[in-house]
Design goal:
heterodimer, A: alpha/beta, B: Ferritin, 12 helices
Chain lengths: 164, 273
Amino acid sequence: MEIVFTENQILDWLRSVTDPEVPILTILDLGIVRGVTLAGHEVTVVITPTYSGCPAMDVIAMNIRMALLSHGVRKVNIENQLSPAWTTDWMSDEGKQKLQEYGIAPPRRSSGLASPALFDDELVPCPRCGSEHTELTSQFGPTSCKSLHRCLSCLEPFEHFKCH
Amino acid sequence: MNQQLLFYTLQLADNALINGHRLSEWCGHGPVLEQDIAISNIALDHLGRARSLYQYAAELFNALPPEERSTVFNSPALQEKVQMGALLDEDDLAYLRDGWDFRNVLLVEQPNEDWAFTIARSFYFDVHNFYFFEALKSSTDKMLASIAEKSLKEIAYHLRWSSEWVIRLGDGTDESHQRMQNALNERWMFTGELNTPATFELNLQETGAPVDLGIVAPRWMQKVTEVITEATLKLPASTWMQQGGKNGVHSEHLGYVLAELQFMQRAYPDMEW
C-alpha cells in the first residue's frame, strides 16, 4: 500500500512532541523545527538545538522518531542544524502565552543580546500577579533555558524563560 | 592542512571539556544553592560545546588518508583503534587520548582551590572566549563559524556571571577583596597562553579559518582591566607567562583530571551509560 505523506501532515504529527522539561510547549511552539523534507517513505526533520549541552535535545529527537514511526513513516532522519542559531524570538506567540499561563515568565526582550554588559537586568513581570516589582535571584535556573526570580509584591518565587 | 585544522578544532574542544569538567567538580559543593546550579549549568554549556567540536574533529580525522591517521596521536589506547582501521567518534577523542595529546590551555586545568580561584580562572577564560568566539563567527570554516554563533550567546551569560563575581568579591569585605586579588595574581601567569598562537594556528592563518589572536588580545586586556578596576582590585603585575598546553605539555593537574574523567571508559571499554 502506497502511503503519501504531506508536509502539513508531518507538522501536525510533530505537534504531539513536547519539550520534556516544559511539557506544555510543543517543539513547534519552541521554534526548533527548521524544516521537513519528504522522499517517499523517508522523512527528514531538521531541528536546531536550543542550548549546546541541553539534555532535552536527545529526548526530543527520540520522541520525534517515535511519533512519526507510529504514524507509519518507515524511515526518519533527524538532522541537527547549528546555524542560524536558535533564538527565543522563534518561539511562537501561542507558546509564550502557554508559558505565562503555566507560571513561567516568557522571554520578552528581542534577542541578539550576546553582549558582555554587566548588571543589565531586564524587567520581568511576575507571571502570577503581573507585578513589575520583581528581582533576579540567579541568571541560571534548573534547566539551561531558565533564570530564577522573585516577586516582591506577591512574594512568590518564579522562573523566567530567558532571552537567548 | 587538514591535520592542522584537526589540531585547531581539538584545541578548542579540549579547552571546553577540561574547563567544563573543572566547573562540574563544584556540583553539590557550591557556596549557595543558586550558585551551585549556576556553575553546573555553565559546566553543561562547556560540555555541549565540547561535543559539537569533538564530533567535527572526529569527522576531520576520519577524512584524513589512512596512512596519515596513524601519525596524528601518541596515545596507546587510541592508536590501537586507529591501527585496526576503525573510524573515531567524539567519545574516542575525549576518553582515549592521554595528556600529551590534549591541547587545552594550562589555565583551564588549574585546580578549583577556593571560590575566588575558581572565579579568577573562569573570568580570564570567559573574557577570552567571548572575544574569541565573536571573531570565530567569521571563520571561513563553516562548521567552526556555526559552533561559534551558537556558543557566543551562552558565553555572554558566563562572562556576565564571572565578571559580576569578581566585582562582588573585590568590592566586598576585606577578606573577600584580598582573596580575589590573590587568586587573580596567582592565575595571571596562565593568561599569556590564551593569546599566543601555536604552530598549527600560524600554519592555518592563510586559510582564514582561525581567529587572529592579535585582534583578541587587546580586547581581552581592555575588558579584564575594566572589570578589575570596577572591582577596586589591581591588575596583576606582569610576570613570566607559562606556555605549553596547546602543544601537549601540561601541568601535573591534567593527569588527575583525566584519571577521573576517563576512568570508566578505560576500565570498561565501550561501556554505555
